[in-house]
Design a protein that fits this description.
about 150 residues, mainly alpha, about 0% strand, disordered C terminus
Amino acid sequence: MRSPAVTETTHRTHRRSRRSTPNPLHATLLAGTVPLFLGALLSDIAYYRSYQIQWSNFSSWLIAGGLVFCGLALLFALVNLIRAEHKAGRPALYFLLLLATWVLGFVNSLEHAKDAWAAMPNGLILSLIVTLLACVATGIGLTNLRSRGAK
């Protein structure tokens, strides 16, 4: 039979590790932002090289989808940040990266709302930045968010 101290410590550690990793819905939403923003970047590159307006339309829709996924993942990240024992560190960095991704993605969507050629090259540059931010935020978000002292 286990002592009460061991049971309580195990229970706290299990609860802490469960809160530090994203749940499956959060992980799906987070991972969904990368292909949507990457698709927008690739569509912008295709438009920049071919001048076919439909590529700009594809990019606008992909950015809109990326914003939906990123916004929902941002809500999960905010809840995780509020529930975190240590507000600084990786949970805060993850939240701020997702917030920057969403804000720059929104600015990118406004840029793509312009006339097709007027969105270039700013839309292409913003798509590149947003895609890189989404990749970094996803990398941090899908790793274990525990601090070193909570092992």
